[in-house]
Design a protein that fits this description.
The protein is α+β, with helices and mostly antiparallel strands. The protein has twelve helices and nine strands. Helix 1 runs antiparallel to helix 2.
Length: 302
Amino acid sequence: MRFIEEIVVEEFLPTFRSMLAEELRDRGFTQREVADALGISQSAVSKYAHGEVSRNETLLEDERVQELVERVADGLSTGDMTPVQALVEAEVLIRQFEEGDLLATLHEQQMPELSEYDGALSVHDPDSTLRTAERVRSSVRRGLRTLTNASGFAGLIPNVGSNLAECLPEPSGIEDVAAIPGRIFDVKGQATVPSDPEFGVSEHVASVLLSAREAGRDVHSAVNIRYDPDIIASLEDSGYDAIEFDPDAPTDPIVAALSDRDDLTDTFALYQSGAYGIEAITYVLGPDAPTVARAVRSLLTE
């Protein structure tokens, strides 16, 4: 009796880890950094580097394994992907391979009796909430890098600070919106991000995003920047719709401003020019965090 998990441990993991170790070393990781990223010892990394670990040729040549290795290596090297997300992505591929795919075939080769059955080993759901949440956090990180790498972004941060938020596909409240704890602030001309994106930490920008969705807009991300007539004009010149709303409206001002607008661009701006005790502000909303970040960055290249 041979379990498919043994195929995973003895065939998939050594092959996948050795391929990933090579990709990380190619991206400038030290042996210690590779070991930390993979959660293994430096001696194991050394064995991978010197070809002392047997690898499965079928797995080595599979394009899906190659694509995952490259994607995980890119994510870990840029910081867009956490070890948790890397683990989840690898687990999803493993479960896919187990269900009548490559690992199932290897399993049958080593245990021919299995070929008589059509049953699938459904262990992990590829559409799991964990996987989706990690992808949203990764998207926010990419958007943040676009903003913070843009020269002059700090000058667009309002007094209350900026935040970049993105929600799950079907959010039910702010707990389903990932953003930056403590917001992004201008510290001596430098945009400062205090910590990694988390869910449920933004009430302000998350509420605007959720209200826009309540109004029927298919948006998943929002960022707030300071208000200035020239900023609004620049956004419109770049092809983005800009809608003014009344912060003192008796009902939800975002819903009120968007309820009768069916002709909006996919990425658009909402703004208010200030009221008593309320700072003037601009919001850019769109399908994901990198997209709204690029819209904001376009203001800095005018």
